[in-house]
Design a protein that fits this description.
Elements lengths: L1 H60 L6 H32 L7 E5 H18 L3 E6 L6 E5 H17 L6 E8 L4 E8 L33 H11 L4 E6 L3 E9 L8
Parallel strand pairs: 2-4
Antiparallel strand pairs: 1-3, 4-5, 5-7, 6-7
Helix pairs in contact: 1-2, 2-5, 3-4, 4-5
Bound molecules: adenosine-5'-diphosphate.
Length: 266
Amino acid sequence: DPITTDMRTLTEEIGKFAKDKKIEIDTLKVREEYRRDFLGNVSHELKTPLFTVQGYIETLLDGALNDKNVRKKYLQRANKGVDRLMYIVKDLDLITKLEVGELNLFRENFDIVELIEGVFDLLEMKADKKNIVLTFDMEYPRPIYVYADKDKIQRVISNLLVNSVKYGRRDGTTEVSVENLIKNKVIIRVTDNGEGIPKRQMHRIFERFYRVDQSGSRKEGGSGLGLAIVKHIIEAHEEKIYVESEIEVGSEFSFTLEKSKVGAEH
Ligand code: ADP
């Protein structure tokens, strides 16, 4: 009967339409939850430094401005708070772009050893403060050319090294090594002998805003975005990142990169 067939087709179509709509609504719900979650975390992260800055400014306005010694100290502290806010906002901007896949990679051939040494120079002061020695262990002679987005890989190395110093022990060491892995890959390792990461929290450290509770991370400044940024950048390169860690012994973060096909090869 053609009418029954038509009705059946219609019912099937309505059913399919409703199913599609449901999937659409479910997706929207997940997105909405994600957005709410994200915004909640953002305002939380911004509040702490904002309150700090506000506190110093209010104290200054309440009379501390007249005290020459205190004035400078408080302004410097407020300024530091503003620096931190800037830093968090920049990280937020970067992670948002990375998460929606808006950030394109600009790959080029460059010497990874030189890049790492550059980051060492930038971090020397921070490391000195905790008397942490930064060392470089290389299996092969330099230069080691890789094919990747240089600025973003600098960011990766910098975030990992900053963490190794932040969560490293006083008088400790951070060692970076570059090794050939398979024929067209190198592996870069950043190893510290710091506080380590509890086993049951290890799988979460790459989530944005996640910070290990009982670690030094609560007293150390940070937004919990560093490793999320690292992971996104490495995955955008279609490479892998690994972590091994033991409490009170230390942590090792390692990631792979593609070797350059041109340039000086060793
Ligand atoms: P942040 O350092 O801003 O808190 P990250 O995303 O860089 O955020 O790191 C997430 C958390 O992982 C840190 O809060 C810390 O608890 C832990 N962590 C990261 N790197 C190390 C490390 N080298 N040693 C010990 N813990 C680490």
